[in-house]
Design a protein that fits this description.
alpha+beta, 36% strand, flat
């Protein structure tokens, strides 16, 4: 099952295992490629905003994957997702559009980016 807005999910974080999906940032289409071992692979990373009474805003970096081993059905991946820079950028842009980040976080991020870019010139 893919995480969708208003669904309940159960990743463990700080002793809590029941979360409500508030928003999902996703790619326009999954990353698809051919692997000599797995055959056709479809890889669908997401940034999921989770909420519960104990924590108002937690971000879950998750992914779903389909391979020959999963009978070409999307299954939740294990461990942290691996992302290329362009994939991460597309997820971040969708997350910003969908309001997954607070204004305070975006201001801090913007400041850190500006500082780093000015150091490079």
């Amino acid at each position: 099952m893919k995480a969708s807005v208003s669904s309940s999910v159960r990743p463990r974080y700080k002793g809590i295992s029941r979360w409500q999906v508030e928003a999902v940032a996703e790619l326009k289409q999954p990353v698809e490629y051919h692997c000599p071992i797995q055959g056709k692979v479809s890889y669908d990373p997401k940034i999921v905003w989770l909420g519960c009474p104990e924590h108002s805003r937690v971000l879950w970096f998750a992914y779903w994957i389909s391979t020959r081993k999963t009978s070409d059905r999307m299954r939740m991946g294990q461990g942290a997702p691996m992302l290329e820079e362009d994939v991460l950028l597309e997820l971040l842009q969708d997350a910003i559009t969908k309001g997954l980040f607070t204004n305070e976080f975006m201001r801090k991020l913007s400041g850190a980016l500006e500082k780093r870019l000015s150091e490079r010139t």
